[in-house]
Design goal:
Blueprint: H1 3-11, H2 16-24, H3 29-44, E1 47-50, E2 52-57, H4 83-95, E3 100-105, H5 113-124, E4 129-133, H6 139-147, E5 152-154, H7 162-168, H8 174-187, E6 190-197, H9 204-217, E7 221-226, H10 243-256, H11 266-271, H12 275-280, E8 286-287, H13 294-297, H14 311-320, E9 324-325, H15 348-360, H16 364-373, E10 384-389, E11 392-398, E12 403-408, H17 415-430, E13 434-439, H18 440-445, H19 447-460
Helix pairs in contact: 2-9, 3-10, 5-6, 6-8, 9-10
The structure holds iron/sulfur cluster.
Residues 60, 62, 64, 67, 69-70, 106-107, 135, 302 line the site of iron/sulfur cluster.
Length: 462
């Protein structure tokens, strides 16, 4: 097996350079798709989760260059569904055994958070998970929606290349997009993001950055769509994105984030009538059938000729590839660490809750350190805190650089603790991490020295 694919399959980590080389090499495609398929089977099983999509408004304040329902496209017939219509569609979907309802719209601020919260609360009575896909809102609005019972939120970043992002999204900023995603994570939403493949001027390097961003965010769902230019947009003369490249980005995402949910996107099926099945055999485990009423469905046209899902046909095709339709809500299995080599199921739950407990009970030194590195403040590197790696929880980690920072109090002086630390260090180093340890005293009295050491280590790991 290709060495890099083997590494990704085993350790769920790749550097940017390694991602680029795999994206550039079409000789490894089959091997990559097979590896992603096998990781998908191992971590999320053979069930395919169906998410019922309700597109409730095609009004949008934004002008994304590739989107058919952008504000400046006057050829679109706009619509908004009433609350009662949305609830009726949701009831119908729930009666058809869908266990997730996805409410999607353009950035339509006439749907205030409180009103949407009422709709979510109504749908939650149907014993289904609710996913929202309504674009950028404030932290407070997201909080209201979370409180109303919404479980998930989809907000594709589309590209992490700042220049390209701002070119494609007039008057929008990449920083705010990221702010939204981190707010959603913090509020406890299962957070979905993803990218478009084939934007004009996009490079393999920027796609590699996208994948690394998904990992940094620890996204729970990732949707990858090839660009399909809409004839009534500024990108009308652009070429379609390459389906194979989109599948490769998706497969690499599966290898790096093995336990997440990944849809076989409609755009893939639109480009190739077998695109959905190809995606399901290259790492995907979710399909999102559109259950919006027929009379308005055609008006939600981000790109043209969107492929529909024929339930009977899908079931038949799934049976042919030995997959089944799930009738569960299909939340991410958080108990599997993305960096775990061969996790024992025993204790996974404990470690998850322990990590959460530790995050909520940080020492003063940890809080001081966290405040200096959070939101990529230090050298533009994303640090995570109290993060599970295998059976261990580390204080802070910059995954992109495979660098762990541990802050030790006096408890680490005991022989037992030293023995435990040695074993832990051995394990983490065997997985390619470098570990820097500092005493709490260093954080209190020599913070400049601490950051100088970290800065050197980060540069060494370029
Ligand atoms: S992609 Fe989304 S945010 Fe952008 S114009 Fe279309 S609906 Fe609006």
């Amino acid at each position: 097996m290709n060495e890099l694919i083997e590494k990704a399959k085993e350790f769920h980590t790749l550097t940017k350079g390694e991602l680029v080389s795999l994206l550039a090499d079409d000789g490894i495609n089959e091997e990559l798709f097979q590896a992603a398929d096998s990781v998908r089977r191992e971590f999320v099983g053979d069930e395919v989760h169906l998410r019922a999509l309700i597109e409730f408004s095609n009004y949008c304040r934004c002008n994304c260059l590739y989107c058919g329902i952008r504000a400046e496209n006057n050829l679109v017939e706009r619509y908004r569904l009433e609350k009662s219509e949305i609830l009726e569609l949701a009831q119908h979907a729930a009666a058809s055994r869908y266990k997730t309802i996805v409410l999607q719209s353009g950035e339509d601020f006439s749907f205030k958070a409180d009103y949407l919260a009422e709709i979510v609360a109504g749908i939650k009575k149907l014993d289904v998970a609710v996913t929202l896909s309504i674009g950028e809102r404030s932290y407070e609005e997201y909080k209201i929606l979370k409180k109303s019972g919404a479980d998930r939120f989809l907000l594709r970043i589309e590209t992490t290349d700042k220049g390209l992002y701002e070119k494609m999204h007039p008057k929008a900023s990449l920083e705010n997009r990221k702010r939204c995603l981190y707010d959603l994570k913090e509020l406890g939403f299962e957070t979905g993001t993803g990218c478009l493949v084939g934007l004009p001027g996009q490079t393999l390097e920027s796609l590699a950055d996208d994948i690394l961003f998904f990992k940094e965010l620890d996204a729970d769902m990732i949707g990858i769509g090839p660009l399909i230019p809409h004839p009534h947009t500024p990108l009308r003369d652009s070429e379609c994105g390459n389906l194979t490249l989109a599948l490769k980005v998706m497969a690499l995402t599966r290898l790096l984030l093995p336990d997440i949910n990944i849809p076989a996107t409609t755009a893939m099926e639109t480009l190739n009538s077998e695109g959905r099945i190809m995606a399901l055999q290259a790492g995907a485990n979710v399909v999102m059938p559109n259950v919006t009423a027929e009379d308005v469905r055609g008006k939600y046209e981000i790109y043209p000729n969107k492929a529909a899902v024929n339930y009977a046909e899908l079931s038949k095709k799934l049976a042919q590839i030995e997959r089944t339709i799930s009738h569960k809500k299909g939340f991410r299995n958080h108990f599997v660490s993305p960096l775990t080599l061969a996790p024992s199921p025993v204790g996974r739950g404990k470690r998850f809750y322990l990590a959460r407990h530790l995050r909520r009970n940080m020492t003063p030194q940890e809080i001081k350190f966290w405040n200096l590195v959070r939101n990529s403040k230090f050298m533009n590197i994303k640090f995570k805190r109290q993060y599970k790696i295998g059976k261990y929880i580390v204080d802070f980690v910059a995954i992109q650089k495979m660098l762990i920072i541990e802050l030790d109090g006096g408890g680490h002086n005991t022989p037992e603790q030293q023995k435990y630390d040695e074993e832990r260090t051995k394990y983490l180093m065997s997985r390619g991490f470098k570990i820097l340890r500092f005493w709490n005293n260093d954080i209190d009295n020599n913070i400049d020295g601490v950051f100088e050491t970290i800065s050197l280590a980060l540069r060494e790991r370029n």
